[in-house]
Amino acid sequence: MMSFGKTALRGAALAFAIFAVPMAVSPLTSQAFADSTVKIVVNKTPITSDDISKRVAFLKLQRQSGNLNQKARDQLVDEALKREEIARVKMSVSTDDVDAAFARFAANNKMNPQQLTQILSQAGVGADHFKSFIAVQMSWPRLVNARYGARAKMSTQDLVTRLKERGEKPVTTEYFLQQVIFVIPESKRKSITGKRKSEAEASRKNYPGCEQAKTFAATMRDVAIKDLGRILAPELPEDWKALVEKTKEGGTTGTRVTEKGVEYLAICKQRQVSDDYAAELVFKAEDLMKAKDGENPNEAKYMEELRKKAQIVNT
């Protein structure tokens, strides 16, 4: 039986979030408007009885229970707000991306797109309704990440609120790092990677410290030194995080083979800090962890802002 369960749909939404670009999110009511009654208007966008009946049918496919009519209305209002915001900032996925996702969903359920379209039609959902749902699911996480992601600055008000909730400034580790790269040309990657890894490991034993590192590198062939400067623990790339955190000041991490060659990091200095910038990064890291667990407070905050500004009329 086709998997429309909540887990499958959440997984689909996560997969959809990696796509990008031109506008594909269109109102659900483009064809149905003429044949049904307007039940809700969201910022001049109508939601019709046909839209609601299709969403109720979709909820039944997901085996949801309770007041499906109210759930359908609530979901469609939220999607209308998201769709409008997606269009405003021009961050919608493309129609081709939505069609590809639709085809993958069909394949995962051992069907082709035509068979999935037929089943959705028979269930009273329709392929267009499902594709509109997919488009929002693909596009919305990109907006949330763009606004609240690691590179987006937290507002002063949000920072103050979080600090009051915490009662004290969070503490994190500040690192000053140096990157050591044993360069491997792409043409020689297969033939010399093992040799370069051995050289990199041997050099760690004789590493003289960050101040003398460039002089040290000059005694070896094709070794680059890059000062990475100040990096706080929440900013550490996942690939390096565990290696850095278990290395003491003045030491070097284990080696990793990367697209540049064989690398390791030197911990020039480290200390505990609790300034505003550190607090902001800690809060963002906490939010990202909640998002990975299926709970994203930033998404709820974004939606609350959209609802406050919206005009929602039930007819």
Walk across the major sheet and give the strand order: 4-3-6-5
* Helix vs. strand class: alpha+beta
Distance, first to last CA? 38 Å
Overall number of strands: 7
By DSSP (H or I, 4+ residues per run), the number of helices equals 12
Into which percentage range does the β-strand content fall?
Answer: 15-25%
Average pLDDT confidence is 83
Shape: elongated
Helix content: 40-55%
List low-confidence stretches: 5-34
Account of the protein in words:
There is one protein chain. By secondary structure, the protein is α+β, with helices and mostly antiparallel strands. It contains twelve helices and seven strands. The protein has a four-stranded antiparallel β-sheet with strand order 4-3-6-5. The chain has a three-stranded antiparallel β-sheet with strand order 2-1-7. Strand 5 and strand 6 form a beta hairpin. About 10% of the residues have low confidence.
